[in-house]
Write a structure and sequence with these properties.
Number of helices: 0
Mean pLDDT: 96
Helix content: under 10%
Structural class: mainly beta
C-alpha cells in the first residue's frame, strides 16, 4: 500500500525553523520525484518545492527561496523540507506528494502537517 506520511509540523515563532519529513512506504523513492505543497486557510494550494528522483533537479517557489531547503535520503525513503526564517505567511498545512517527475501531476498525497508561525 502506497503511503506518504508527513511529520515535523508545529507552532514556531517568527524567525524560527522547522524540519518537515515525508516518509514513504509501499514503494521506492528511487523512481519518483517528491513535491511539497501548502494550503493556508482561505487560499489555494500552492507548490512550495520539488526534488527529482535523483536529487539532481530542485525547484522552489519564489517566496521560499533562500529560506527552505528540500533534500532526500533514498536509503531511508524519506524527503525533508528544512524551513528557516519562518514568517506568519508560511502558516499552512504542508503536504508532500509523489510525482513521476517535477513537471508531472502528483498521484499520491500525504495527509498533511500543520505549520503555524506566530508570536
Amino acid at each position: 500500500q502506497v503511503q506518504l506520511v508527513e511529520s515535523g509540523g508545529g507552532l514556531v515563532q517568527p524567525g524560527g525553523s522547522l524540519r518537515l519529513s515525508c516518509a514513504a512506504s509501499g514503494f521506492s523513492l528511487d523512481y519518483y520525484a517528491i513535491a511539497w505543497f501548502r494550503q493556508a486557510p482561505g487560499k489555494e494550494r500552492e507548490g512550495v518545492s520539488c526534488i527529482s528522483s535523483t536529487g539532481g533537479t530542485i525547484y522552489y517557489t519564489d517566496s521560499v527561496k533562500g529560506r527552505f531547503t528540500i533534500s532526500r535520503d533514498n536509503a531511508k525513503n524519506t524527503v525533508y523540507l528544512q524551513m528557516n526564517n519562518l514568517n506568519p505567511e508560511d502558516t499552512a498545512v504542508y503536504y508532500c506528494a509523489r510525482r513521476r517527475a517535477c513537471w508531472s501531476t502528483p498521484n499520491y498525497w500525504g495527509q498533511g502537517t500543520q505549520v503555524t508561525v506566530s508570536s
